[in-house]
Amino acid sequence: MRKNKDKKVNIDKTAKRKRLWILLGFVVVAVALYLKGGYISGYDIETTEYDIEFENLPEAFEGFKIVQISDVHNALFNTENFDLIRTVYKLKPDMIVLTGDMINYGTTRFKRLFPLVEQLEEICGVYYILGNHEQTMRVANMLLITEEMEKLGVKMLFNDTVRIERDNEAILLHGLCQYKKSYRDPYYSEESTYEFSLSDMEKMLGKSSDELVDVVLAHNPMYFDVYAEWGADLIFSGHIHGGHWRIPIIDKGIFSPNEELFPEYDGGEYIKNKAHMIVSRGLNNGMEFIPRLFNRPELVVVNLIGSPNS
Ligand SMILES: [Fe+2]
Hints:
The chain has 7 helices and 16 strands. By secondary structure, it is an alpha/beta fold. It folds into 2 domains: 1-37; 42-306, Purple Acid Phosphatase, chain A, domain 2 (4-Layer Sandwich). Helix 3 packs parallel to helix 5 (139-152).
């Protein structure tokens, strides 16, 4: 009897030791991957650059460079965002667009956005649309952000259109502030309808231009068909965070904040008729306790190019 008890204690100890070694193995592999290249991502920014052709691009906008920053979610890229600012500065952009979720909705640390935006604005003009997180934060905090952006010279687009002018030529920049209920998100108190129609978009922005290039900032990429039908030439979007964890080799995102697996628009360029939609994987997710996997923080650059057929 005694012998059996001793044997059981020994088996328990061996199993425990085995589990410990397996756990240690995982930690070592994770740290090694992280140090090697941000596979468990990290703060190692990756820049993705696109050249996109437009038949009606004015000559003055040939090579016009737009940098897109999306879904920062309060993250800091080195002290006071030094790495992010330095990366943008080196790209020498003509315009910077912030496509929402620059902060987390429940945060008290949203003011860390201010010095970042102040320095971006010193590089070139900054245009900012809201993501679902800004739309969900306390109204008083949102008003503080709006006031500060105004002071810093950042143009916030709440279903607004601005003419971007160069040498007496222009393109149009539209900023969508979509209904909260058009997102599928369990944090919203109101019922999500997960709907956004062409008539919604026309109510918000009016009609697209027949002559000028229409650039649209829209946080949620799920309505690409609507943006294309409306007449957008170029759309900057985010929200999906690249699917949080990506499957290497096939490079496919797994999860979506819209509560679906393997989201259709998980990052990259999508084309429908004349519309090009760029979906940034974003710079962060706001979930430090669940790191991104095979999904480095992404900064997007788009160069506008005149079509040789025009
Ligand atoms: Fe986000």
